[in-house]
Each structure stands twice: as C-alpha cells, then as structure tokens.
Specification:
This protein is mostly helical. The chain has helices spanning 6-32, 47-60, 67-93, 113-140, 143-193, 198-203, 205-233, 240-246, 256-269, and strands at residues 95-96, 106-107, 111-112, 251-252. A hairpin with a 3-residue loop joins β2 and β3 (111-112).
Length: 272
C-alpha cells in the first residue's frame, strides 16, 4: 500500500497515536500547570495523531527530499484532517470539542493558522527525524511478536472506544434530563410565587392538593438534579468528568445551558 504494508501502517498508527498523546499532555501541563489526560479516549492514545502521521507518510514520503514541499504537504494534510475530524465529531455528537474562534485566521473554529503552522513543522520533523528510528524499531520486531502486540493494542483500542461512546451517549441523556428538571423546577417555582388566592383554592380542592404536593415534588427534582450532577462531575479519571477536563472548550449544541452549568460546577470542584 503505497510502499507500506498493513503491518507497518498499523504499528505507525499506534506509535504516533501514543506519541501524540504525550505531546498533548506535555503541552497542556506546561500551559495550565496541571496534569490532564488530553485525549478523546481514556487510554494514552490520540487517534488523530496516528491517522495524521499515517496519511502524511502515505502521501508525502516521495517528497521527503524537499523540506518546503514536505512542510506544505504536512500543513495542508493535517489541517484538513483536523477540520474534517472536528466537523464529524460535531455532527455525530452535537458537540464541539475544541474552538479556535478566538485565534486569528481560523476556519469555523476548527483550525487556525498558528496551530496549522505547528502541525506543518511537526509533520516535517516527524518524517525527516522521528520516523527513521520508528521504522527501524518496527522492522526489528519479530513478526509473530509484532502481530500479537498489535492484536492486544487493537482490542484495547476497541474496548476504550466502546467505553467512550457509551460515556457520550450517557452524557447526552443526562444533559437532556438535567434540562428537563431545570424547566420543571422553573415552572414549579413560578406556580408557588403566584400566591394563588384562598378563594381560588377553596373553589378547587384538587388545586389545593396539587399545591400542597408541589414543594415535595420540587424537592424530589432537586435531589435527582444533584445526583446527576455529582455523578457526572465526580468522574474525573473516566467518564464525562474526564472529558470536561480534557476539553474545557467543549460545547453541546442541543443542551448548551445544562453543560455550561455542569462545567462551572466541575471547575469549582477542581483542586486549586
């Protein structure tokens, strides 16, 4: 396949996905002062880096003798991958995971010139400097051992992906319920604040029964709301809490208010 075997490409994907995760963690730690598991998945793997380097190697290996062409190709390919990935994730999960809208020369908030230039330089350096020892390492591994490790890595990747997708489906469901509870609490508070007259209550016994039951119902809703928030916020190593910490700029297009409140509570609970 363009000079590479499937075996090689699989190894390159996993190696660069792990190295990309390391880069993300180091960058985030240096800029925020806190260690954060920066990745869409729970494990130490950023698939976008793996896919990005595989695409770069497939398309640009013939151009590696020319630094300008290698830089330009890396710049364009990695920017296109980041753009497509952000768009697909937004459509699939109704969520934006990163946002470059505050950066100059950005495109829809998905990509920006500054990071695209960095990806171009990184791709160029990876092909010329990093990939030769990686290629030698993959060639050094005995094939039976290599395939066994690839099988284990692939299984772990699929399990992690399934767990992450389950988390996202659960987060969408919980955000929807939090918004439903918030709307019910607003309606209940409005009903109490109207302070219905005694005459009106006397004219309708059912109304009075409903009014007596309303505070208890609101209390039940508040307990359910607090339980959902605690469940989501306290999952810092895995689950929704980890995603909110890994992607502080994430926004849900369908339940923006509920997610904003959840993120504010999550941020308030983080250690100073």
């Amino acid at each position: 396949m363009f000079g590479f075997s499937v075996y090689q490409l699989l190894w390159y994907f996993f190696i660069y996905a792990v190295l990309g995760w390391c880069v993300e963690v180091i960058f985030c730690t240096a800029t925020t002062g806190q260690w954060v598991n920066r990745g869409f998945l729970n494990g130490p793997l950023c698939p976008i880096y793996g896919f990005g380097m595989v695409i770069v190697l497939l398309c640009l290996t013939p151009l590696q003798g020319s630094l300008p062409l290698l830089f330009l190709g890396s710049f364009l390919l990695t920017s296109a991958l980041e753009l497509v990935t952000g768009f697909v994730l937004k459509k699939a999960f109704h969520t934006t995971w990163w946002d470059y809208s505050d950066q100059p020369f950005n495109l829809g908030g998905y990509v920006c010139l500054g990071f695209s230039l960095a990806w171009g330089l990184g791709g160029m350096a990876a092909v010329r400097l990093l990939h030769p020892p990686v290629e030698k390492f993959v060639a050094f591994l005995p094939r039976p051992v290599g395939w066994t490790l690839l099988g284990a890595f692939g299984l772990a990747f699929l399990i992690d992906l399934a767990a992450t997708l389950t988390t996202l489906i659960g987060l969408e469901r919980d955000l929807r319920e939090l918004e439903r509870i918030a709307a019910a609490l607003r309606r209940g508070s409005d009903a109490i604040s109207r302070n219905l007259s005694d005459a009106a209550l006397a004219a309708d016994e059912k109304l009075e029964e409903g009014r007596d039951a309303l505070p208890a119902k609101l209390a039940e809703l508040e307990v359910r709301r607090d339980f959902l928030r605690a469940k989501l916020v306290d999952s810092r190593l895995f689950g929704a809490g980890r995603l909110m910490r890994a992607f502080p700029a994430m926004q849900n297009l369908k339940h923006s208010d509920a997610l904003a409140e959840l993120k504010a509570e999550f941020k308030a609970r983080l250690p100073r």
